[in-house]
Design goal:
Elements: E1 9-13, E2 19-22, E3 27-30, E4 36-40, E5 44-45, E6 50-51, E7 57-63, H1 70-73, E8 85-91, E9 97-102, H2 103-109, H3 114-117, E10 132-137, E11 150-154, E12 159-164, E13 169-174, E14 182-186, E15 191-196, E16 199-201, E17 206-208, E18 213-218, E19 223-226, H4 229-234, E20 244-247, E21 253-257, E22 262-266, E23 272-277
């Protein structure tokens, strides 16, 4: 975007030793020697970068010009208050776009248009009704999903979707006990985890109402539960935006408190094993 240094947002290491990253603009990959492998500037890419079992890259983007009709959303750019047309994008390992779809259009196609244009006097959250912040690809068939499906975390809807690109169908949507959530992970054949920022738009600011949580949803029982809740409370984990979590196969928990540059690692039986703070934040 300019000649100054940029912040590498959600960098992801690849199995070949490369690094994928974006700075709220082009998606780039460099190799282990820092040489540029590709740069895709077709869209304005943002938020998390994920890869699937076939090596494809999934990353959110902003469509501009917006894909929705001009009489609905206009054509102003986002930086000047224009409608944020968030999109799901799948790229090949070489950085070529294979699939892209507006999330607002997904809503319209699945009879959810009322969630886009019926809140407030204009648009919800300053013309940003979706705010896609994570795409989690499904890598195996199961009772509740199919390989090729994707989970979408929609921050400004406080909603998680299970979407099937092959048929353009929303298979499931969850608006459970989470607010402005981020980072969806698939735990096994019937459970997912969600990093619950628990941030709310109160009168003075967007703030964490208590603490962050790691929420587990079980498709078999249709129940939500909170994972290592007491540990997160005891260590005052409370990032307002961003945030990541990973429940490891043995039950240990890794958490990133992004706004404060802190990472934490918990044993599965709750005690904090270690924490690290990036003082440069």
């Amino acid at each position: 975007k300019h000649n100054k240094r940029s912040l590498l947002i959600h960098p992801k290491l690849t199995s070949d030793g490369g690094l994928l990253f974006q700075d709220d603009a082009p998606l780039r990959k460099i190799n282990a020697c820092s040489n540029l492998i590709f740069q895709n500037s077709h869209d304005k890419f943002h938020h998390s970068i994920e890869t699937d079992i076939d090596g494809n890259i999934w990353v959110p983007s902003h469509f501009y010009p917006q894909s929705l009709p001009i009489e609905k959303v206009g054509r102003d750019i986002i930086e000047k208050g224009g409608f944020s047309d968030d999109a799901v994008v799948r790229l090949s390992a070489e950085g070529n776009i294979l699939f892209e779809k507006s999330v607002s259009q997904i809503f319209i196609d699945n009879d959810l248009e009322y969630l886009l244009f019926s809140v407030g006097d204009k648009f919800f959250s300053d013309t940003d009704p979706i705010h896609l912040n994570d795409i989690q690809p499904v890598n195996f068939d199961g009772e509740f999903w199919e390989k090729g499906d994707i989970f979408l975390s929609l921050r400004h809807q406080s909603m998680v979707l299970l979407f099937r690109p092959s048929t353009n169908e929303i298979i499931w949507k969850g608006t459970g006990p989470f607010f402005h959530q981020h980072d969806v992970d698939i735990l096994d054949s019937h459970r997912i985890s969600i990093f619950n920022n628990n941030s709310k738009d109160f009168v003075n600011a967007d703030m964490v109402d208590g603490h962050n949580e790691v929420i587990i949803y079980d498709f078999k029982t249709n129940e939500y539960s909170s994972y290592l809740k007491d540990s997160l409370i005891e260590n005052d984990v409370r990032t307002i935006t961003a945030g990541r979590s990973e429940i490891l196969p043995n039950g240990d928990l890794f958490a990133e408190e992004s706004n404060y540059g802190r990472t934490l690692f918990f044993n599965k039986d709750s005690p904090l094993r270690w924490t690290h703070v990036n003082r440069a934040m």
